[in-house]
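Q: Sequence in, structure out?
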Amino acid sequence: MRAAPFEIAATDGWRLRGEVRAPDAPLAVAIAGHAMMVDRRTLDRPRSNGFVSHLVSRGVAVVWPDLRGHGESGPRADEGGRWSYDDLVADVAPLIAFARREFPGLPCFAVGHSLFGHVTLAHLARFSSTAAPLDGLVMMACNVCNPEWRRRPFARAQKVALIEVMRLMARVAGRLPVRRLRLGTDDEPAPYIAQFAAWCRADDWRSLDGFSYWRALPSVTTPILGIVGAGDRLMSPPADARGVLSRIPNATFEIHGRSTGLPIDPGHMSLLLDARCRPTWNRIANFLVGK
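A: Exactly. Output:
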């Protein structure tokens, strides 16, 4: 098995770092990206026995980055790093280009838990005619503000209130103090959090220059597998995730839990972190290797 660090430059020069892990004869390559407030380590806990290791054991080479401002891809927010959601969207293209250079000729996928899932979808939506090519996208527990939230006003009010509190805290401190609040490992900068709050006020998922990722979703033709946990009540409830994927012509949506044979109804993080969800991980691996 191959395991090696990597470092690449984003389009604005920001250095993105991570690790490549690959079996001896890979069948496909996947860029596996993490959620907000954490770094890449969440994707393989415990190390060598988590989700990334499972994909490698199934024949998938994994490009495993820390997203901009997280983990080793600093400067982090507590070190003065500042970035927007749109910067993360722009970072998708160089990651895809790197994966294709490292593993030429292999089918190339992205697998995103929460943040990286919808960031990659935003890349595909905005650059539908020129996007860096992907053979497929797996979105685990992904949800993002959009007009469909209005159909569930109580749930919408909960999420909007949470994001507004985050915005106010970030405005005062200059960043959301995630580590101090014990919500994760990586603080998030105030401009990034403010962009989430702006989506809630507009009921639209859009870039800083006004491009609506939401309205562009029907232009996405990449095959997509969307999976959410049946027990995800706040961050990515099944009804919300379904609303996003229903706008994409070539998307498959699945709710995993006791009704699909799991011993639990997984929540937002347990879908990724709980080894009892290995049947879900197998479903993802099958999608990646064409089974």
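Residues 8 and 22 are 18 Å apart (CA to CA).
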